[in-house]
Amino acid sequence: MKRKKLVWECLVGFCGTFAALAVAQAVANLLRPEPLVWPALLALVLVIATVTLWRSGQNRFELPPDDPQR
Prior knowledge:
The chain has two helices and no strands.
């Protein structure tokens, strides 16, 4: 179970890194004379995917209340 949680956290981190880069790209795109729409849409999709993965991972790998590791 611990290995699955580590793999899941790695996936969330990977997706989060690209979401952060896409948000930076979208902000930089706003400073252009003629901004495009696709960088903002890509950032939105990646941020939603990251938050969804993170929240589902919290529910999936939650420790039982009587676990002494908490």
